């Protein structure tokens, strides 16, 4: 039972407005959450409510805040809530649109996340344990995927691919994984300085040097892994890419390094990269509308690497079901604000699991200090979390939360775990 609901407008890590909500429970405990915001969004994401007008270049969220403080508050205070699912269902009903555009997915997701914290608190459990119980999974500390080199919509350099991540798959435990990530990140800074390249940062805290090709980026990162004293590959530090291909796809072709690639040619390019570098995961390698390309890439590369759908599935249970039927990928990225409620995010995870897909939990490029996704990754036991570089407050808030959970629960396993796709016929 809630006794008060209050939201306010705050700033995200890019200095754009977002919102924070506080739910007060009977007994006095106050649980808060805040909404992140993407820059390279999928077409079918749930819609953020923005004010328009002159303030904050139209990006204010005063109307979303007002919706929480009036209509949503009235709903939440009207009766006791037996479950997260009943509360999330009522929020969707109150909104009444398929894309949550009336109250705003930014408003709804923050309320839903704060409510999950309230349910966990009433159950006397940490958030990750409550999530684990809700989906019937044993917890696991995920392999952090540190985004150490930024391009695309997250940086001003000419690099088309958006994210170059390092994953300490060979680390024995979470603190070691965090250490390796930090060591490689700093080694990369040293490599860049030695070459006279810029060590300015992109939106997710990774370096954004003035390079234009993926090979150059992969060479720099492989060198940094070695300079930090680790071995590139599964036993040491692997690499994961999120090209976010929507953003270099125009009129049916991919524009990369000044040349045009057909879908099949781009798949061939990825094949070469995968053969030459220790790449374990490819997210959004093709544009969301290039359905045929996704199926082709998964058929050709799906047994070598994880193929993750972000913009193509947008954490949406129905879009994921279609993707599983079409063998479009073999993994899904989970971002609660893409779909708008915690319950729907958990549904997407369950559908992935039944379909033999892996899951990776993710932050957004515009973030706050809220560390919800760290608990989500641990609770689901999916083995993978991406939350940007091992630097900058809003990114390390998630990694530090993992360290806290690891410290409090020394028996939790660390690592990728059994890939769900082992059960997939193929
Ligand atoms: P976004 O980027 O938060 O800007 O959408 C993250 C991603 O593409 O994974
Ligand atoms: Zn992505």
From TrEMBL:
It is an enzyme of class 4 (lyase). Its EC number is 4.2.1.11. Residues 2-131 form the Enolase N-terminal domain. It is found in: Cytoplasm; Secreted; Cell surface. The keyword Transmembrane does not apply. Coiled coil: none annotated. (2R)-2-phosphoglycerate binds at residues 162, 335, 364-365, 386. The active site is at 204 (proton donor), 335 (proton acceptor). Mg(2+) binds at residues 242, 283, 310. The keyword Plastid does not apply. Keywords: Cytoplasm, Glycolysis, Lyase, Magnesium, Metal-binding, Secreted. Binds a second Mg(2+) ion via substrate during catalysis. InterPro entries: Enolase, Enolase-like_C_sf, Enolase-like_N, Enolase_C, Enolase_CS, Enolase_N. Pathway: Carbohydrate degradation; glycolysis; pyruvate from D-glyceraldehyde 3-phosphate: step 4/5. SMART domains: Enolase_C (SM01192), Enolase_N (SM01193). Its cofactor is Mg(2+). Residues 138-411 form the Enolase C-terminal TIM barrel domain. PANTHER family: ENOLASE. NCBIfam families: eno. Catalyzes the reversible conversion of 2-phosphoglycerate (2-PG) into phosphoenolpyruvate (PEP). It is essential for the degradation of carbohydrates via glycolysis. HAMAP family: Enolase (MF_00318). Belongs to the enolase family. This is Enolase. It comes from Paeniglutamicibacter antarcticus. The gene is eno_1.
